[in-house]
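Reproducibility note. Readers wishing to regenerate the assembly model reported in the main text can use the exact inputs given here. Chain order matters: entities are listed in the order in which they were concatenated for prediction.
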Amino acid sequence: MRSTFMGLEIAKRGMFTQQSALHTTGNNIANANTPGYTRQRVNFQATESYPSLGLNRPTIPGQIGTGVEAGSVQRIRESYLDGQYRSENNKLGYWESRANALEKMEEIMNEPSDTGLSKTIDQFWKALQDLALDPTNSGARAVVKERGIAVAETFNYLSTSLTSVQDDLKGELDVSVKEINSIANQLNNINKQIASIEPNGYLPNNLYDERDALLDKLSSLANIKVSYQKSGGNSLEIAEGSVTVEIVDSNGKSLGTLVDGSQKKTNELAVNYNKTNGLVESVNIGSKELPVKEFNSLGKISSLIDSYGYTYESNGKMVEEGLYPEMLGMLDTMAYSFAEEFNKVHRSGWSLNDFDSNNEPLEHTEINFYSFGRKADGTDALLTRDNIKGAASLITISKAIEESTDNIAAAYPDNGQPVQIGDGKNAIKLAEVKNQTFSIGGKSTTLQNYYEGLIGGMAVNAQEAERLTSNSSVLRDSVDQRRQSVSAVSLDEEMTNMIQFQHAYNAAARMITLQDELLDTIINRMGV
Amino acid sequence: MNELRVTQSMLASNSLKNLSKSYANMGKYQDQLATGKKISRPSDDPVVAIKGMFYRTNLTEVEQYKRNLSEAYTWMENSEAGIEQATQVVQRIRELVVQAKNDSNSPEDLQAIGVEISQLKEDLVGVANTQVAGRYIFNGTQTKSPPITKDANGNLDFSKMITNSYNVEVSKGVQLKVNTNANNVFGEELFNTLNQIETALQDGVGSFENGDAALEKLDGHINSILAERSELGARYNRLELVDSRLGDQEVIATRILSDNEDADIERVITDLTIQESIHRASLAVGSRIIQPTLMDFLR
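Running the prediction on these inputs yields the following C-alpha cells for the assembly.
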C-alpha cells in the first residue's frame, strides 16, 4: 500500500534537487572569471522506485518513481587534455628560460655593432696600421696603446658581464628549486585534505581545481608524470584520490618521486654545486642523488642548469659545459691565444728604447705587449696554455707598455741589414695577427673566424630557442583552448540551465499545491 | 559532440593574445624603421649577423688602406719634389761647368763659378736632408737622422746614409716602396765630383782643367737621378692604380654591407601600414567580444 503523502515527498525532492542545481549554476556564474575554476555539474539521479524488491513487497502494478536526488557535484574536465597541456608547458618552460638566457648573452656580446669586440679589434688594427706609417710618432704610439687597452677592456667587460648574468642564473635556479619544493609541499597538503574528505562520499572540487593549477605550474619547472591513488572508505567511483608526482627524463623513465600520494610525503629536490668550479654537479630528489648528466628532465630547472653550467668528470678531468661556461671558456681561449700570438710578434720587434740617442740600434730586448694582470710584486703575470681560465677577465697591457709607449716594438730588421728606428715592419706584423692563422683552442683558424664562429653559434642557439619557445607556446595555448572549451563557464549555457532548473523548481512547487488540494479533498470533503 | 564549445572567457583571452601578437609585429617594423637595419640581434638572422661582422671589417680595412694611400702620396710627392729640385741644381752646375770650360774666363770668373757651385752643393745637402712632418724622407727607414751629416771639420759624412726601402701597406699583403734610393740622387760620388770641380775652379790657376771629364761624370749623375725619378714615377702610377681600385672596393664594400643588413625602407613602411590596419581591425574586434548574453533577452 502506498503512502498518502508520497506525492509531497516526490515534489519536495524535486524542489530540493533543482535548488541544488540552481546553487551550482550560481556558483558557476560567480566563478566564471576565476582562474583555474572548472565548471561543475550536479549529477541528477532518480531515487529508488517504489516498491523495491522484497518478500513483503505490496502487490501493486509496476514500479512508481519516487523522485530525484543530487548524486554528486562533479567537475567537467578532461584529464588527457591536462596531460597534453603539461607536456607542452614543460617544453615551453625549458625553451623560454633558455631563450631568456641567450637573449641576455646576445645583448652583452652586442654584435654586429659599432661597439662590439669585433669593432674594437678592427680599430686596434687601424691604430697599428697608422703606427706602421709613422713609427716614431708618439701620437700614433699613444693611439696604439689606448686601442690595445680598449681590446683588453672589451674582453674584461664581456667576461665580467657574462659572469654576472651567470650569477643571476644561479639565483634564479635556486629560486626555482625553492618553488618546486613549495609546490610539492602544497600538493602534499592538498593530498592530505582530499584523503580525509573523499572517504565521506564527497567530491572536493575546489581542492581538485587547486591541485590541477599547482600541477600545471609544476610542469613548467620539470617534466612530471602524474598518477592517482584512491582514498578508500566510502569514496565515490569518480573521486580522484591522492596524487603522486614523479620527475621523469625525456624517455619517460622515472628519476625520482617528488610527491608520494600513498605515503603522503614529499621528497625535496636539491641542486648540488661543485666545490671547486661552482657549477652544478648533481641533483638530489630526496636522498637519491643523480649525476647532473642523468637529470635530463626538460623544464625550467634543467634549462637553468644548462644555461648556468654543469660539470662532470671525464678522463680524470672536470669538464665544464653549459651556455655561459662555454661562452666564457671560448672568450678565455680567444683572449689567451690572441695575447700569446701578439706578444710573440711584439717580442721579436724593436722598440724605441732599443736605440741610442743617435738613433743607432743597441741591444734588442723582448717586451710583451699584453699580460694577464700583475703579480704581487707588480711584475706581469702570465698564463700557461694548460690553465687559461679567466684569461678574458685578466687580460691587460703589460707593465712596460703601460709605463712608456716607447716600448711599443714597431721596427723589424730587414734581411741581414741593421734595424732602423723609423721602420714599421713589425707594426704591420702586429696588425696582421688579426688575420693570421694560428692555433686557437686547438683549432687552426684566424681570430676573426674564431670570433665569427662564436657569435654564429650563439645566434643559431638563440634562434632555435626562440623558435621552439614560440612553437611550444602556440601548442600549449591551443591545448589550453581545447581545455577551456571543455571546462570554462559559458554564461549563456548557465543561463539556459538556470531557466531549465527554475521551471522545474516552479513545477515541483506547483505539485505541492496540487497535493495540498488532493489532501484537502480527502480530509475536508470526504465523508463529511 | 565535436563542436567546440566557445565561452566568453575564451573570446577575451584570444582577443588579448592576438592584440599582443599584432603589437609585437608592429614593434618589429618600428625597430627596423628606427634603426634602418633588418636585424637588431644576431638571432634575428645569424647569417646576416656573421656576414655583417665580416663586411664591417672589410670596409674598415678598405678605409684604412685609403688612409695609408694618402701617406704614400705624401712620401712620393715630396720625394718627387726633392728629386726635381736636385735635378735643377745639378743642371745648373752643368751649365756652370760648360761656362767654366770657356777659355775666356778670368781666374776671378772661375772663382765666382766655384763659389756658386759650392752654394749649390749646400743646396743639394739641404734637399737630401728634407724633413716631412719631422721625418727625413731620403734616409730609408732611418727617419730620425739626416742622411748627410758634417763632421767637426765641416766635411760631408755619408756613412749614416741608409738606402733601404720605406714601405707602406696599400692593400692586404701588398707593400709599396714610397721612398727613393738617396745614394742614386745624393750619393757620395756626386759630391766627390762636385768637390773636384770646385777644387779645380778655385785653385787660382786661371784655367779649368779636365772640364770634359767633369761634364761626362756630371751627365752620369744626371742620368742616375733621372733613372731614379722615372722609377718613382712608375711606382706613383701603380699607387694611382691601387687608389682607384680601393675607391671601387670601398663603394662595393659599402654597398654589400648595406645590402646585407639595411632594411628595405619602402617595404618596411608598406608592411608597417598593413600591420597598422590589422592592429586597428583587431582592436575593433576586441570591442565586440562583450556580446549580449541570453540574460539580455530574459525577462
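We highlight two features of this model. Chain A touches chain B through 63 residues (CB under 8 Å). Residues 369 and 398 of chain A are 5 Å apart (CA to CA).
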